[in-house]
Amino acid sequence: MFGYIRIAKPELKVKEYEMYKAVYCSLCRTLGKKYGIWSRFTLSYDFTFLALLNMSMTDGCNPIEKKRCVCNPLKKCNYCKNDESLLMPSAAAMIMMYYKLLDNLNDEKGLKKIGYILIKPLFSHARNKAKKEYPQIDKIISEYIAAQNALERDGCAELDKAADPTAKALAELLRLCSDDERQKRVLERMGYCLGRYIYLIDAACDLPQDIKKGSYNCLKYETAGEPSEYAKKRIVPQLYFCSNEAGKAFELLDVKKYKPILGNIIYLGLEDTFKKELKV
Questions:
Q1: Which pTM value belongs to this model?
Q2: For the chain: N or C, fewer Cβ within 10 A?
Q3: Residue 237 has what pLDDT?
Q4: SS3 215
Q5: Which H helix or E strand runs over 56?
């Protein structure tokens, strides 16, 4: 994913921000333990949100311990002692990064492509390990990538159709956060709205560069005037809609813990992020 599901930091209490950082650092540590130290550099805010949401659906507390950061040994970080809920998000991160690498290999040329070829074995090994434990995640993401690639090959200019694979993929991933069928339906709806939000904001942010490079972007077929301004006009109303609908779904969730942090992300962070990214 792309790092667009973030907190609105100024609106969080200090203890809430410290807990968010603890989940972020714990996910980083879990990635390192499971897939190697290099995998820590693939961490994103989107998967931190997935980890936080997955943890929030279970009862009980997550005790915190302080340990030195592997990437910065001079610094001590807070970590969650119970990291079972972090295994699924870390596997999803590795599988997603593997398919993202394959996509980059197809798109890039020259030195960048050579770099991706060199690191591919690392990602391939991590993906195989994650797939063995979570085959359903590999199925979700591989089908999403195949559907997205097919739309791009056809030059799809329909925004709703182009955003659908990303929306469906996140809907399926969020369903894995609960065993309760009612909660799964709510998570699916929230995931669909968030996935659509991610696709739309990414398309809007990338539009000027994609036009220059001649890369696919579903917005460029109707662009009128300056690309950035067109993207804002076309996408911002839909981003408001996606974030509002995600908020309605969130209100129906039976969240056991971390509700203020998750609420901050849904109600404030989504809007704050797209306003900063698109300079609205």
A1: 0.92
A2: C
A3: 96
A4: coil
A5: helix 45-56
